[in-house]
Write a structure and sequence with these properties.
Elements: H1 3-34, H2 36-39, E1 43-44, E2 47-48, H3 49-79
Antiparallel strand pairs: 1-2
């Protein structure tokens, strides 16, 4: 793979990792800690939403991000022709 393609591939990879980490950080730290009082005014299944994000929501978001990352990386791998056959 030419050097320019290698740099573009890693740039796309790092951009995807950064986006995923920002989403996870926002959901786990932002919603579970910083905005917990505001979110606790909303109920989800009988539980306060801030409590739900602190206990369950960030885990669900993390698992969803794992699947999203794998799906998106497969697309990026095919785009740069480094996919496995």
């Amino acid at each position: 793979m030419p050097s320019e393609n290698r740099k573009a591939y890693w740039r796309a990879n790092l951009r995807l990792v950064t986006i995923c980490l920002l989403i996870w950080f926002t959901c786990s730290y932002g919603f579970g800690i910083l905005l917990v009082d505001e979110l606790n005014r909303i109920r989800l299944g009988g539980f306060k939403l801030g409590f739900w994000f602190a206990q369950q929501g960030s885990i669900y978001i993390f698992v969803a991000l794992i699947f999203f990352y794998a799906w998106r990386m497969n697309h990026i791998d095919r785009q740069f022709d480094v996919h496995e056959d």
